[in-house]
UniProtKB/TrEMBL annotation:
Localization annotation: Nucleus
Annotated family: Belongs to the pseudouridine synthase TruD family.
Reaction(s) catalysed (UniProt annotation): uridine(13) in tRNA = pseudouridine(13) in tRNA; a uridine in tRNA = a pseudouridine in tRNA; a uridine in mRNA = a pseudouridine in mRNA
Protein name listed in UniProt: Pseudouridylate synthase 7 homolog
Organism encoding this protein: Seriola dumerili
Length: 609
């Protein structure tokens, strides 16, 4: 369907959510942003990824709400303006990304029935219980009657393949040989993955579709890594997906069989794998052509006319291409503050921001770690308070323990590169958001003299005459860096003032540490979604699913049934976006409400209480 011509609109002002009614890679030359969808690490790297937080498990509602009391709002990160003049309405966000899981079958060439025949049904039952932590003994012993190396190898391989997460060893007891299976998680002695035979005619990478609920991409990768006993950097993907959504995306992993991956479906919670195939290449950030979204906004207050006006504006005009709240973290210490300290070369402040005690609820062991650091400044003592050493705090403390507090730059380098760059990219992002808000405030939705457009990958300053032949959809704004130019109107000059206020020199964006030198990039200020459609649904149960998920379809579960004349109303909308744009910012334009987790948590808490 051809897109409609843009209609004249007024620039909307920021309207906060009533509380009581009364994550740009530094590069040699600037580029157009196209790296990934949701603000995670800028590209795959040889470094190992960190786990998203310093602990496993989900927060309960009350704890999460307490954490969010000290979280960021849109105002804190420069998200201030709207493009349309329709009246906003309230609602609760639920979103999912669309990529179909069609099957969970292993490719035929790989199925090896003889391998599964070496285990009896009783042994399989015992191993399955062990895999799910239901075996109180902590291990399963299988006696090898026909004791040959080939038979033992077959049993070892069958257990590891059919029951991912289990490790095996051979033991001799009273002259009899046993293969002992035990849970690999936490067993440091056998942490290094072993090499397995890999056919030469098979692609080196197993590609699969990952379906996940309530986990972000890096959390999910870390779970898979733990079960498969791999380093997380063995996985590749084209973009990061949000935690608080149902998402589906393609993943590739180096030399892990589809059969091993398929067996993970037996023991994973809120994660499912399918659509396995072998290819000769990994996935790369930047290859993503875009994302299709299905978004459900529950308990909407808007009339049908308001919904129609809002979605028509989104389809015809679009939304401001702000970096969404995912880019800036959810704790009381925003990632952009750490990034600013890195760019200032103020390493003591970097350590302080990451490790100091902070307001808001956190997991108890993390609170104890921070308190220990504040009291003793002893990295080893603080590190002992963390059961999970792979979080950012743990990696930094380990670095300080190894290299000392006088070598903070080296110690900080123990944090994987992607995560370190996330800090400075979030600083760039908040600058971009702020300057785009000023640009919209000053000139509205028309191209003006001094604006920038791209000619190929090169930015060009518009003359007054040229501005007449361009629209707002052509205009780009730069992320600050040493290899970009800035608009020549007064808003462009504001970049220098903003960075100066943060004690940074816009003319010197190269850093003593090469990784932290910022080349900059260009980003379109308005995005028009494609494939926009919507419907209003009525229902009674606020907890019922309003979308038939891919996994439910795969398991032949019936579609959700709800009362079409129910007391609640929901907006179900679909649209497609290019890479490096945020669905939450499109939703924000529709609702005209703050999309931060802090504000949405307040809405959820109010509704369900």
């Amino acid at each position: 369907m051809a897109e409609s011509e843009p209609v004249p609109v007024q620039v909307g002002e920021k309207r906060g959510c009533p509380e009581n009614k009364g994550k740009d890679t530094p590069s040699k030359k600037p580029r157009v942003e196209s790296d990934h969808e949701n603000g995670g690490p800028p590209h795959q790297d040889e470094e190992e990824e960190l786990e998203g937080e310093a602990g496993d498990g989900e927060e309960d509602g009350e704890t999460f709400a307490n954490m969010m009391k000290h979280g960021l709002t849109e105002l804190d990160v420069g998200i201030l303006k709207y493009v349309s003049d329709h009246e906003g309405f309230s609602g609760i966000l639920k979103e999912r990304f669309v990529l179909k899981i069609l099957d969970q079958e292993v490719p035929e060439a790989e199925q090896q029935p003889n391998e599964s025949d070496v285990l009896t049904e009783e042994q399989k039952k015992q191993l399955g219980e062990l895999q799910l932590f239901k075996n109180k003994e902590g291990n399963v012993s299988i006696e090898v009657i026909d004791d040959t190396k080939e038979k033992r190898t077959l049993v070892h391989k069958a257990i590891k393949t059919q029951f991912p997460g289990l490790e095996t060893k051979t033991e001799e007891k009273e002259g009899r040989k046993f293969i002992v299976a035990y849970h690999a998680a936490g067993k440091k002695a056998l942490a290094a993955p072993r090499k397995h035979f890999w056919p030469k005619n098979r692609g080196s990478f197993c590609h699969f579709v990952l379906y996940k609920e309530n986990k972000d991409t890096m959390d999910a990768i870390n779970v898979l890594s733990k079960f498969l006993r791999l380093r997380p950097n063995m996985f590749s993907y084209m973009g990061t997906k949000d935690k608080r959504a149902i998402t589906v995306q393609e993943i590739a992993v180096l030399k892990i069989t589809a059969e091993r991956l398929a067996h993970l479906n037996k023991c994973l919670m809120n994660l499912k794998l399918g659509n396995f195939s072998y290819k000769n290449h990994p996935l790369k950030l930047g290859e993503l052509q875009g994302n299709h979204f299905t978004v459900v906004i529950r308990n909407i207050s808007g009339t049908d006319e308001q919904v129609h006006q809002a979605l028509t504006s989104l389809k015809q005009t679009g939304f401001i291409n702000y970096y969404g709240m995912q880019r800036f973290g959810t704790t009381a210490v925003p990632t952009q503050h750490v990034g600013r300290a890195i760019l200032r070369n103020d390493w003591n402040e970097v350590v302080d921001l990451i490790l100091k005690p902070r307001p808001g609820a956190e997991k108890e062991f993390l609170v104890r770690c921070r308190e220990e650091w504040a009291k003793t400044q002893d990295p080893e003592a603080a590190l002992k308070k963390l059961p999970n050493k792979r979080c950012v705090e743990g990696q930094l403390l380990r670095g300080l323990s190894m290299y000392g507090k006088k070598n903070i730059v080296t110690a900080f380098g123990l944090i994987p590169r992607n995560n370190r760059l996330m800090y400075i990219h979030s600083y760039q992002s908040v600058v971009w958001n702020t300057m785009v808000s000023r640009r919209i405030e000053a000139f509205g939705l028309k191209a003006v003299e001094g604006d920038l457009v791209l000619r190929g990958t090169t930015a060009h300053v518009l003359s007054a005459e040229e501005a007449e032949s361009h629209t707002i959809h052509d205009i780009v704004m730069p992320l600050p860096g040493f290899d970009v130019i800035y608009p020549t109107h007064h808003v462009g000059k504001g970049y220098r003032e903003l960075l100066s206020a943060d004690k940074l020199d816009i003319d010197n964006m190269r850093h003593k540490v090469k990784d932290y030198s910022l080349a900059g990039a260009y980003r379109r200020i308005i995005i028009r979604p494609s494939d926009v459609s919507w419907e209003v649904i009525q229902y009674d149960d606020p907890r019922i699913s309003l979308v038939h998920s891919d996994f439910e379809k795969l398991e032949n579960k019936p579609a959700p049934v709800f009362n079409k004349e129910g007391k609640y109303r929901a907006l179900r909308m679909e649209f497609s976006l290019p890479p490096s744009t945020y669905a939450t910012m499109a939703i924000r334009e529709v609702l005209k409400l703050d999309t931060s987790i802090k504000k949405q948590t307040q809405l959820n808490t109010t509704w369900f209480n």
